[in-house]
Amino acid sequence: MAAVTSPGIAAKPAGEPQSLDDLFLDAKPAAEKDPASLDDLFVKTVPPEPEPGKEPASLDDLFLDKDVAQPAPGTTQPAAPTEAAAGIRSAVAKQDGGQTKITGFYQNRLAYTYAKPRHWSKFENTLDVSATGRSGGVAWKLGGQLNYDPIYDLTDFYPSRVRDDQRLQADIREAYMDFNLDDWEFRLGRQHIIWGEMVGLFFADVVSAKDLREAGLREFDMTRLPQWAARAEYFMGDFHGELVWIPHMTYNDIGKPGSEFYPFMPPPGITANILSEDQPKGLDDSAYGTRLSYLKDGWDMALFFYSSNDSSPAFERVAVAGSVVTFRPIHKRIQQWGLTTSKDLGSMVLKTEAVYTSGKQMYTSDPADADGLVAQNALNYIVGLEWSFPQETRFNVQFYQQRIPGRKSDLLVDKVESGLSFNHVSKALHPRLETDVRLFSSLDHRDWLAQFKMNWRMDGNWRASFGVDVFSGDFLFGQYGDRDRVYTEVRYTF
């Protein structure tokens, strides 16, 4: 999940069956008796009878499943390395003998907004399919995604333009080829380029576009949008260099006015008329950048530069007619310089990211300003610590801040804005059951976001989740105060 990353204009304060078990059980309990315990719901094979007078030693005895490998006491199972971390070279090496491999998933997501006005807000069905292969020295990947949400056919809660935008959508997710030339690795096509790795927040991940139609609340694999890009990587010992060119930018998807999490709220007393978004295209608006990283004494450090149009829109004021103000979402050129570090400190891991942005369009309250925007420079940074414990338990805390050195007095944001995030993930109840709790809180306003999620991995292919998102406050997260919701997810991976 990602936290809200693009606050809109907000008035600053004056200051199914009975359960999923019934759907996915391999064998039903005997009809003549009710389940005596959770054993009857989750056990695939009948476990041995316990010794008389002996109680289950742990929840493991209730969730017995022979195909689950139990970690040794006091240890955690290491996470598999990601392709992004391993680089293009590993992607080429993964393909064996030119054999084509098909992978993907189907996911259903159902959400109910219980804050007034109560309504069903999501019934999304997603099919994601990818094919990978290799021919000679070239590896390739082609993947697409189809989304259909019948909530827009079953209700008339949302405006027609929101329905047209989110009811049915087909996208090319990834379409690239990898090849080597001497010491260089190349990837050409639609691809993910990930430069940041903080928990739930985007700071140094400046190249990725994001699907923010749910305000960045979803997992990163659903929030990140790939770019059409040419990427070159160079490896030499502990040094890694990367060059990126994006001739045709993909911008953040913010949806349409009237959608659940549209990131724009006009000041009180103003009726906003939103024009179509202006997304510059063409070679003159291409993006480019470089990233250099080095591993020294356990410190993984990287510097980067990225020049692009801002992937997040600013809403320029076009016309004023009484209390009706016309705005247009626009994307202006910005330059970004960044630094990332990470270090394993034994019992914990330290990560930092800092990005300095020049030319960022920010909102002003000055009525005499022609378009209601001013270009400002801003420094955003985050420091995070993460501890790992047995039973795949992790605790993460992050402090983040934005500073505007030359802030103009009529900006709608303060010179310094600070926040904290907490994340606790654990499989202490059972190796198949994961709890995930996240909290994001402003330190300058009475704003916070709480996310509670439970993931149940039913077997190697099925996963079910239940979650709650709660917003509170009067500025950043508070603008979504009537979007509190509960949701379920069911995903089949193949």
In round numbers, the mean pLDDT is 84
- Envelope shape: globular
Oligomer: single chain
- Helix coverage percent: under 10%
Fold-level CATH name: Porin
Segments where pLDDT lies below 50 for 5+ residues? 1-86
Q: Compute the number of structural domains.
A: 1
Instruction: Quickly count the helices.
Output: 7
CATH superfamily: Porin
How widely separated are the two ends? Answer: 22 Å
Q: Give the strand content.
A: over 45%
CATH class (first level) name: Mainly Beta
Largest sheet: 18 strands, antiparallel, barrel
Structural class: mainly beta
**What is the H-and-E element order?**
HHHHEEEHHEEEHEEEEEEEEEEEEEEEEE
C-alpha Rg, in Å? Answer: 24 Å
Q: What would CATH call the architecture?
A: Beta Barrel
Quick one: how many beta strands? 23
Summarize, please.
This protein has 494 residues and is mostly beta strands. The chain has helices at 21-24, 39-42, 83-86, 88-94, 151-154, 160-166, 220-223; strands at 101-113, 119-135, 138-148, 168-181, 184-191, 209-210, 224-225, 227-236, 239-248, 271-274, 287-296, 299-309, 314-321, 324-330, 333-344, 348-363, 373-389, 393-403, 416-430, 433-442, 448-457, 462-472, 485-493.
Set down the secondary structure blueprint.
Elements: H1 21-24, H2 39-42, H3 83-86, H4 88-94, E1 101-113, E2 119-135, E3 138-148, H5 151-154, H6 160-166, E4 168-181, E5 184-191, E6 209-210, H7 220-223, E7 224-225, E8 227-236, E9 239-248, E10 271-274, E11 287-296, E12 299-309, E13 314-321, E14 324-330, E15 333-344, E16 348-363, E17 373-389, E18 393-403, E19 416-430, E20 433-442, E21 448-457, E22 462-472, E23 485-493
